[in-house]
């Protein structure tokens, strides 16, 4: 006999496991299905984010940052290091431990919140409104409501599949067993820059090939220029406006034929090649045809603004639907859907979703960029403050970058905040809160910020909107 649930969630990534927990908190009998496996074949909930994305990449970024500090910067603090060595296997092992802690944490949260977990692939087998059937293994579950949260997969270059040995996705890039002498990156996006930063810090010679003529086109142009300057200074070789041609793998490595922005033919010889050209919605094995679930031309599930699909009682969230492929966006959608199912009024403001690139310097932003405001013809004021003039940044020894505020020219409402520099990922939260309450730049400028702190740069940038910074 089929097990009956109020809500079945397919996928236990950030959108799925959060949706399941919130639904259970609201008194709904909830099941969550996930197919990720750990090294021993056991369950590994958390999706791409926990297993081969956000969490492991940050673990390696932290390890590689420690190594670079010891190798290049400890001397500035009067700390001498002799016989510095690198154990890549141990570094990867620590990363794996961090991932497992997060996997186990999600399983604990399921148990705590009385979510029934099923390990396997969830596939639609049919049903009608209020009675959808989802198969997992030999079992068929019946749910009144189903939330699809199956995430996304790395996009491969046409004709160049990932072998995770020489040609790597984000998965393989997190499992490189030794520092490659030469590393190639196709795509200067978030994943590419973060992985490039890890292996560059550990000693690899890294070359980035980007098809677009501009660097980080989604980022505010002034911030992107500052970031590019910092990355080049660190040793990243960044080529823009390139056309990638034939890619050949051999026992020695990978050969990439490419043409630069001037139309000149080039060849890049590397030991490993990371391909980071975006991600595609993951619906493999879902069998959406069984319930008439409509997909768009990218393979994403079509949903409305509230994450309702074309089929009554079936919802979808996260990377498998429209919008930015960000873990925290998926989480917010997951909570909102669970609350809507329970008769509440879930809400997600897509204009206030922060973006972060965890390189060094970090890049973070929320709201509109200067180029977007210009394109819209909106009158605005801008204010910037460099970390070079911040006392805490000087003490840290990391003064790269700035904070930038954009505010409406008449009302002074904050329209966008953009940061490149130390701890940008943490500093951006203040901007999110301020913008959620439609604060003005003057509001931030009038709030007392602790001294010395990096957050003082946020206050100073807000002051700069009115051309009255105090420390620059």
Shape: globular
Largest sheet: 7 strands, mixed
Number of strands: 22
Structural class: alpha/beta
What is the CATH homology-level superfamily of the largest domain? FAD/NAD(P)-binding domain
Tell me the CATH topology of the largest domain: FAD/NAD(P)-binding domain
Give start-end ranges of low-pLDDT stretches: none
**CATH class placement of the largest domain:** Alpha Beta
Chain-averaged pLDDT: 97
Q: C-alpha Rg, in Å?
A: 24 Å
Percent helix, as a range, is: 25-40%
Q: Helical region count?
A: 13
Q: How far apart are the first and last residues' alpha carbons, in Å?
A: 71 Å
Number of domains: 3
The second-level CATH architecture of the largest domain is 3-Layer(bba) Sandwich
Strand content: 25-35%
Domain FAD/NAD(P)-binding: 5-334
Organism: Rubrivivax albus
Main location: cytoplasm
Keywords: Cytoplasm, FAD, Flavoprotein, NAD, Nucleotide-binding, Oxidoreductase, Redox-active center
């Amino acid at each position: 006999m089929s097990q009956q649930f109020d809500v079945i969630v397919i996928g236990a990534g950030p959108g799925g496991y959060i949706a399941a927990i919130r639904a259970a908190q609201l008194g709904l009998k909830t099941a969550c299905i996930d197919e990720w496996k750990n090294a021993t074949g056991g369950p590994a909930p958390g999706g791409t984010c926990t297993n081969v994305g956000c969490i492991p990449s940050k673990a390696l970024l932290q390890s590689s940052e420690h190594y670079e500090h010891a190798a290049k910067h400890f001397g500035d603090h009067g700390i001498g290091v002799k016989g510095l060595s690198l154990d890549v296997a141990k570094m990867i092992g620590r990363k794996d431990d961090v991932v497992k802690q997060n996997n186990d944490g999600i399983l604990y949260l399921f148990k705590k919140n009385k979510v029934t977990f099923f390990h396997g692939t969830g596939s639609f087998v049919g049903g009608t409104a209020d009675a959808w059937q989802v198969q997992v293994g030999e079992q068929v579950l019946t749910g009144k409501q189903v939330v699809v949260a199956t995430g996304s997969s790395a996009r491969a270059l046409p004709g160049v599949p990932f072998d995770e040995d020489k040609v790597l996705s984000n998965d393989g890039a997190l499992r490189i067993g030794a520092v490659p002498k030469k590393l190639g990156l196709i795509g200067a996006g978030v994943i590419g820059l973060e992985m490039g930063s890890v292996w560059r810090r550990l000693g690899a010679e890294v070359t980035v090939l980007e098809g677009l003529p501009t660097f980080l086109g989604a980022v505010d142009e002034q911030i992107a220029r500052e970031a590019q300057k910092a990355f080049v200074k660190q040793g990243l070789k960044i080529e823009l406006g390139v056309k990638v041609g034939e890619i050949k793998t051999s026992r020695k490595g990978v050969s990439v034929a490419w043409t630069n922005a001037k139309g000149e033919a080039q060849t890049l010889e590397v030991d490993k090649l990371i391909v980071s050209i975006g991600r595609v919605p993951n619906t493999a094995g879902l069998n959406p045809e069984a319930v008439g679930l409509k997909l768009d031309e990218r393979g994403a599930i079509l949903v409305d603004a509230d994450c309702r699909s074309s089929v009554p009682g079936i919802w979808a969230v996260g990377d498998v639907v429209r919008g930015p492929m960000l873990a925290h966006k998926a989480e917010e959608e997951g909570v909102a859907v669970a609350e809507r199912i329970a008769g509440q009024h879930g809400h997600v403001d897509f204009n206030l979703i922060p973006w972060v690139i965890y390189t060094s310097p970090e890049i973070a932003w929320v709201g509109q960029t200067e180029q977007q405001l210009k394109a819209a013809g909106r009158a605005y004021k801008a204010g910037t403050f460099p970390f070079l003039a911040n006392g805490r940044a000087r003490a840290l020894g990391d003064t790269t970058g700035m904070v930038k505020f954009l505010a409406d020219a008449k009302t002074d409402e904050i329209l966008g905040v953009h940061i490149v520099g130390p701890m940008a990922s943490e500093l951006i939260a203040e901007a999110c809160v301020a913008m959620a309450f439609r604060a003005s730049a003057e509001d931030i400028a009038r709030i007392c910020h602790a001294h010395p702190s990096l957050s003082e740069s946020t206050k100073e940038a807000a002051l700069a909107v009115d051309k009255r910074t105090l420390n620059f």
